[in-house]
Structure formats: C-alpha cells, structure tokens
Write a structure and sequence with these properties.
The protein is α/β, with parallel strands linked by helices and 150 residues long. It is 20% helix and 30% strand. A 5-stranded mixed β-sheet has the order 2-8-7-4-5, with no helix packed on it. A 3-stranded mixed β-sheet has the order 1-3-6, with no helix packed on it.
Length: 150
C-alpha cells in the first residue's frame, strides 16, 4: 500500500471511529473592502498554536487599503485600535509591545499574503476574544469572534 493509500485509510478509520484532529490553521481572505472572509474562528484548546494565513485578494496598496489580523480580549479592542492609529503603518498599526495584543500580523496590500502563528497557552476556553483589522477606521466593521473550545 503506497503512502497516499495509507493516509486515506487512516483518515477513513479516524472518521469511522469518531477520532478527529483539531483544526489549528485557518485561511482568511480580505480584499479592497472592509470585511474578513470569516466572521468567526473557533479553536480547540488541544491546539498548542494557531496559524492564520491572511491573503489580500484586492489590488490596492497596503498604504491605501491595507489589512492585518489582530487578536485581543473583547474589552481591549477599542483601545488597541485607537493606539494602533498612532503607531502608524511602519508598526503595522499596532502599538509596539502592547500587552493587550495577543497576536498581530503585518499589514498587507493587494496580492500579498502573510502568515501568523501564535500560542494558545494563555487563552481560555469560554474567554471573550475578538479579531480585527487595526488599519485606521477598519476596526469598526472588520472584526470577528475568536473562541477557544475544550
């Protein structure tokens, strides 16, 4: 049995027995508009880390319609976004060393992509988290729910 056939057999066995593997990597698409392709990301606590693959399918440059992916506690979103405006594009619109920021990607423009990986060690199941774009003015509409499940 070749490697591909063994992998397929293992996946079928896992599906038949109810064994599943937690999704720990997510593809998120943005463009020349103010929304993420997904309004919610749910991560199982069994994921030691999470990877966000952010892709900008638009054509506008980062300085005009750039987007990033920032994660913070719900209560911190407004403060992080406000402070990020002052940080500027050179800092990806995230205040350097901001303890309220759990994770943040770089700002990307049309045709670009970036990958962000962060640990789940300090995240709690049932915690209230929001992901958003901190480009000035975007955080009001570009946000989604981030949850951790057991």
């Amino acid at each position: 049995m070749n490697t591909s056939a063994k992998l397929i057999a293992l996946l079928l066995l896992c599906a038949a027995t109810g064994v599943t593997h937690a999704a720990c990597s997510y593809d998120v698409v943005v463009g020349d508009y103010l929304r993420f392709s997904t309004p919610e990301v749910s991560v199982e606590k069994s994921c030691a880390s999470v990877t966000i693959n952010l892709r900008h399918e638009g054509t506008l440059a980062a300085k005009i319609m750039g987007h990033n992916w920032v994660l913070s506690a719900d209560a911190d979103v407004q403060g992080v976004a406000t402070d990020g405006m002052s940080a500027g594009l050179a800092n990806n619109y995230v205040k350097p060393n901001d303890a309220r920021v759990i994770a943040a990607s770089s700002v990307i423009g049309g045709g670009d992509k970036t990958t962000l990986t962060f640990t789940t060690a300090d995240l709690s199941a049932g915690g209230k988290y929001t992901f958003f774009c901190s480009f000035p003015g975007h955080s009001y509409g570009m946000r989604g729910k981030f949850s951790v499940t057991l």
